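For reproducibility, we list the full input for the pyridoxal-5'-phosphate complex.
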Amino acid sequence: MKRRTFAGTLTAASAASLSATPAPAAPAAPPAAKAKLALHGGTPVRTAKWPSWPRFNQLEEKALLDVLRSGQWGRGGGKAVTRFEAAYANLLGAPHVVATANGTSALIASLGALGIGPGDEVIVPPYTFVATVNAVLLHRALPVFVDSDLETFQIDHRKIEAKLTPRTKLILPVHMAGGPANLDEILALGKRRGIPVIEDACQAHLGEWRGKKVGTLGLTGCFSFQASKNLNAGEGGAVCSSDADFIEKVYTYHTNGRARKTDGSDFSYRQMGANLRLTEFQAALLTAQMTRLEEQSKTRETNAAYLTKLLNEIPGVKPVKNYEGCTRSAWHLYMFRIEKEAFAGVDKDTLLKALKAEGIPISGGYKPLNKEPFLANEFASPAWRAVYGDKTIRDWASNNECPVNDALCSQAMWLTQTMLLGPKQDMEHVAAALSKIQSQAASLRGA
Ligand SMILES: *Cc1c(COP(=O)(O)O)cnc(C)c1O
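The corresponding predicted structure, in tokenized form, follows.
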């Protein structure tokens, strides 16, 4: 295939995707609350499409083709990865960034560089994506769950200290949905007790705590560029740090334990490691996608603020709150809670079904992670029992109960970040669907 033909093919494909990109036309006024529920055969509040994702044009096409034609597809050959690392560091205001294959490997490399291993305990929240905990388990360290704060959905910083033991080697807060965990309290506690803090900022691109980007305040901050995230290359990740020595350990870990080439010698194995490198294709795509991030973030913020105003007017609907130190949320998700008493006692699953029928692609969010059967299965294996002993393993579940988080999981609902990228009328549809369902909730009882 000739080069021109190939480029032409790509352009045609993206033209199709671009034509689907513009936000849907402003919808008509939402139907009256008394209209029949869509779940019962009525007209849905919304039938129009939600905003498409990802968004790209010739900028991304050129970036990818440039790498393709260069023949330098992996880190080391070309310049795209190092260029992205510099650009992302600049965006965050962080001195050092190492790009990784994904967010999970950003966490694995950070914990590996810190020497987290068998016998160590790591403080984690129960309201997070499973990767936070898998990164701990892969180093054969014991996750210690600290309950959630019902209002913010974040780790409850007030409950961390009681869970610290002489074996606690790391506090690993997550900036859930892009709203920061309480970094003042967590960093102060870590400092007081001599325990490092690593931020799982995989959902928090451009989130800020007191004017500084989240991910830049702990020993490292870990980011994900997986397809659903606010900055997307299909897969991808990054570790940032202001500690020059520590970031070199992260770099070494992420490239099979080999130190950065400084003297031309190629096989300087410094420690155990893995191949967790990003490709040149992903880096080039990320550098292009990054030019859209600020504008998209502003749109999400505007829509999130408007939705919060609308939802605060509906009894029993509780939008997520951010701590006072949060100067910017990334709004990776828009989370809220439903108090079922305000919905005639109807259970969450039925409400989710009713909302979906009204044309709102809502998610029920995470289930209690500390109660996932795979954890108990893992800990029952000989390797875990050999390291931690039968008693620790036997008592693990009862030592890791998180009753507030259980309640949170039974009440939480989410919209994804892509739903915040359209016109503000989209937010009115979400509120209208909730009001409509609430006004007729009794008809859903036993549904
Ligand atoms: C997405 C995510 C990760 C993992 O990132 P991947 O790129 O999917 O490996 C880790 N932690 C949290 C909180 C996430 O949302």
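The chain has a mean pLDDT of 92. The chain is about 40% helix and 10% strand. Both points were considered when choosing residues for closer inspection.
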